[in-house]
Design brief:
The protein is an alpha+beta fold and 428 residues long. The protein folds into two domains: 7-96, Nucleic acid-binding proteins (OB fold (Dihydrolipoamide Acetyltransferase, E2P)); 124-416, Bira Bifunctional Protein, Domain 2 (BirA Bifunctional Protein, domain 2), CATH 3.30.930. It is 29% helix and 28% strand. The protein has 13 helices and 16 strands. It has helices spanning 7-10, 56-59, 114-119, 121-124, 128-150, 189-200, 236-257, 259-265, 280-289, 302-312, 362-371, 380-383, 400-408, and strands at residues 17-29, 33-40, 43-50, 68-77, 85-96, 154-155, 161-162, 174-177, 180-184, 202-210, 223-232, 276-279, 316-323, 339-347, 350-357, 393-399. The strands form three sheets. The protein has an eight-stranded mixed sheet. Strands 1-2-3-5-4 form a five-stranded mixed β-barrel. Strands 7-9-8 form a three-stranded antiparallel sheet, with no helix packed on it. Helix 5 crosses helix 8 (259-265). The longest helix is centred in the N-terminal third of the chain and has 23 residues, at 128-150. The two termini are 30 Å apart. The model has no long low-confidence stretch (mean pLDDT 95).
Length: 428
């Protein structure tokens, strides 16, 4: 066993003999006294090697930054050491040496451009701020899973390969699937609806989705992770309530579990006590009355979302009652003929989730398809499922990377994806 404890755990075992392993964060040679700062994913431990106290073969150790090492020794108190403890080693093993110049500085003394960092992401991940981001992301996705399980949802694992564009759009990645043409899914929408129609009633999933949109923005990626929910015998009001509750629980869990990571990122995370809801029309009127030019029937631009954050003074809020033509064809229209039961969740000036009550009757679905100039015959792969007894249902999708981006105060969504895929990046 290369380690018995991570550094954070080792610091709590003063007087005990432990093994730690990781990377050389820094190394100082003062002749008869040497210091190694060993870093693992939980923190940094000072290893102190003094001639006459530890074996000569250990004092004579020469290592470089980012060499992979293991030390065995006793944990002792030392007020001037980091966190007030250090290791006095009795054993050492060099597990691997660095053989090339580091393209990214894990200690952050030398800054690197984002593109360079992403090219060498496997080194960039060693930086403390990056570790903080992905620790928070892990807590967020697990908080989502815990919250929906507590509400009686069951987890499903739908396919990411489909024989048709699941949202009827053209922005899909085609793949050759043996003798057939197939696509990477744009959304698990169809499959979570089929699960509800199949009688599961309440389902959730965390899935990668792929969109072949040729954009170069700081808020879009071509592969993202969605946290999805679908609920049978429910309307949009039911699932909006669940979305609000789950999102607040995610934020609360991050605040509770990640104080060190939030501090590292310089973030003071506020957890709202409630999530207010505004209609689309109400917000358009607020924008116009505050000098922002927007016409009813247009989607909210990123600039509009940021403007609304200032007008409302709210970090987290819902927008419902959207104009039917600018929402997905499967969104249930209202009786006014203009709006539908669709909604978005906005956090810190950015849409992070969207959803709707779905149309569960074939005649209404076909009518909505025709109004958009689409041929219902080409969507029979989807609409046929609604001919065998489909209950009223609704759902939503919450973007994990967008939520992580906003929680962590990041300027670019690529920072929130372990190995981001955009229009030009397919490596590493």
């Amino acid at each position: 066993m290369y380690r018995t404890h991570y550094t954070k755990e080792a610091k709590e075992n003063v007087g005990q003999k432990v093994k730690i392993a990781g990377w050389v964060h820094d190394f100082r040679n003062l002749g008869k006294l040497k210091f190694v700062l060993l870093r693992d994913r939980t923190g940094i431990m000072q290893v102190t090697m003094k001639k006459g106290i530890v074996p000569d073969e250990i004092v004579d150790v020469e290592v470089n930054r980012e060499d992979v090492v293991q030390f065995e020794g006793e944990i002792k108190e030392n007020k001037i050491a980091p966190d007030g403890v250090e290791m006095i080693p009795s054993g050492f093993e060099l597990l691997n040496k660095v053989e090339k110049k580091l393209p990214v500085d894990p200690a952050d003394h030398v800054k690197a451009e984002l593109d360079t960092r992403l090219d060498y992401r496997y080194v960039d991940l060693r930086r403390k701020t990056i570790s903080a981001i992905f620790t928070i992301k892990s807590v967020a996705v697990n908080a989502f899973r815990k919250a929906v399980l507590e509400k009686g949802f069951i987890e499903i694992n739908p396919t990411t390969i489909t024989g048709a564009a699941t949202e009827g759009g053209a922005d899909v990645f085609p793949i050759q699937y043996f003798e057939n043409q197939a696509y990477l899914v744009q959304s698990p929408q169809l499959y979570k609806q089929l699960s509800v129609i199949g009688g599961f009633d309440k389902v959730f999933m965390t899935v990668p989705v792929f969109r072949a949109e040729k954009h170069n923005t700081t808020t879009h990626l071509n592969e993202i992770t969605q946290m999805d929910v679908e609920m049978g015998f429910a309307d949009h009001e039911d699932v909006m309530g669940i979305l609000s509750d789950v999102t607040v629980k995610i934020l609360a869990e991050v605040k509770k579990q990640c104080p060190e990571q939030l501090a590292e990122l310089g973030v003071e995370l506020e957890v709202p006590k409630e999530v207010k809801k505004y209609s689309y029309t109400e917000l358009v009127d607020k924008l116009v009355s505050n000098g922002f030019e927007m016409k009813w029937g247009e989607d909210f631009s990123k600039e509009a979302e940021k403007k609304l954050q200032g007008i409302l003074g709210e970090d987290l809020y819902l927008i419902d009652d959207w104009p039917t033509p600018i929402r997905a064809f499967y969104s249930m229209p209202k009786g006014d003929g203009k709006t539908c039961n669709a909604f978005d969740l906005v956090y810190k000036g950015l849409e992070i989730a969207s959803g709707a009550q779905r149309i569960h009757k074939v005649d209404i679905l076909n009518e909505q398809l025709k109004e958009r100039g689409l041929d219902p015959y080409k969507f029979e792969f989807y609409t046929n499922a609604f001919k065998v007894g489909a209950p009223p249902h609704a759902g939503w999708s919450l973007g994990l990377e967008r939520m992580t981006m906003k929680i962590c105060g990041l300027e670019n969504i690529r920072e929130a994806m372990l190995f981001p895929r955009d229009r030009t990046r397919v490596h590493p």
